[in-house]
């Protein structure tokens, strides 16, 4: 992917990975529009020189008009990065809140699919365009404490493969960004401070290097064991699943059982 001179729409660009990548793209001479719900996050992004749009992507009805607004205000738009996402614990036998299921599927799965569909006619008119989806190592080895989240990320991986195939003879490239566990507030302050999570700046810097090299999937070194667990052999994948889930359950037990 070209890293300069692009017009990039970054959903979920008001915080975390999205904001850090948006700032990095801005520094490299791109026009970057970040979109999200929180006005205070968007105001802070504007103060950094980013452009902003307000949208609640969990509302499927809002997406077609949001796409129209984005294209009307930024006709040079040629890259969309589907960064917005939510991740919540769900204790299924205990009877977790069903709204977690609907909100997670709406935000993480329906929104990128509908927004891609709405933007494709425009992207196909550009000489070069990119759709970047954002999955997770958990798309490949699920975290059992967050079953709906892990399922949406696995579905986005599958969709990305199909979309790339359907667009293979067009000017639109499809890139899947597969983050490992990164130090953001996705699941709250504990994650933002967790020394086991990859530092955000390190992650962004490795992602930029990999984007420059090209490729369908952006896999930083830290995510490779999780991404590849099933490729080595099924026994290895089971072992990875069990170790990952026992370890994280031990750490997160108090919040998960709360
Ligand atoms: N951090 C990790 O360990 C990790 C690992 C793998 C994958 N990821 C993925 O990376 C992406 C970014 O996550 P992050 O870690 O940077 O967490 P984050 O800081 O919480 O970023 C998520 C962003 O999504 C936006 N968002 C959430 N719901 C939205 C909605 N309904 N409409 C519009 N925007 C919405 C939030 O902004 P508003 O609240 O303002 O709407 C927020 O800026 C997510 O897709 C996540 O699944 C993260």
Summed up:
The chain is α/β, with parallel strands linked by helices.
What does this structure look like?
The protein has about 260 residues and is of the alpha/beta class. It has one domain: Rossmann fold (3-Layer(aba) Sandwich), CATH 3.40.50.720. About 50% of the residues lie in helices and about 15% in strands. It has helices spanning about 15-25, 40-45, 65-75, 100-125, 145-165, 190-195, 200-215, 225-230, 235-255, and strands at about 5-10, 30-35, 50-55, 80, 130-135, 170-175, 215-220. The protein has a 7-stranded parallel sheet, with helices on both faces. Helix 5 (about 145-165) links the parallel strand 5 (about 130-135) and strand 6 (about 170-175). The longest helix is centred in the middle third of the chain and has 26 residues, at about 100-125. The termini are far apart. The mean pLDDT is about 95. NADP nicotinamide-adenine-dinucleotide phosphate binds next to helix 1.
Summarize the topology:
Layout (H helix, E strand, L loop, with lengths): L6 E5 L4 H12 L3 E6 L2 H9 L3 E4 L8 H11 L5 E4 L15 H26 L5 E6 L12 H20 L5 E6 L11 H5 L6 H14 L3 E2 L5 H9 L1 H24 L1
Helix pairs in contact: 1-7, 3-4, 4-5, 8-9
Keywords:
258 residues, alpha/beta, Rossmann fold, 7-stranded parallel beta sheet, 7 strands, 13% strand, binds NADP nicotinamide-adenine-dinucleotide phosphate
Ranges where pLDDT stays below 50 over 5 or more residues in a row are: none
What is the architecture at the second tier of CATH?
A: 3-Layer(aba) Sandwich
- What global shape is seen? globular
Strands, total number: 7
> How many domains, in number, for the residues?
1
Main sheet summary: 7 strands, parallel
**Reading side by side through the largest sheet, how are the strands ordered?**
3-2-1-4-5-6-7
- Strand fraction: 5-15%
The assigned structural class equals alpha/beta
What is the N-to-C succession of helices and strands? EHEHEHEHEHEHHEHH
Bound ligands, each once: NADP nicotinamide-adenine-dinucleotide phosphate
Give the end-to-end Cα distance, rounded to a whole number of Å.
44 Å
Radius of gyration: 18 Å
Number of helices: 9
CATH topology (level 3) name = Rossmann fold
Share of helix among residues?
40-55%
Which whole number gives the mean pLDDT? 96
In the CATH scheme, the class would be Alpha Beta
- The CATH superfamily is known as NAD(P)-binding Rossmann-like Domain
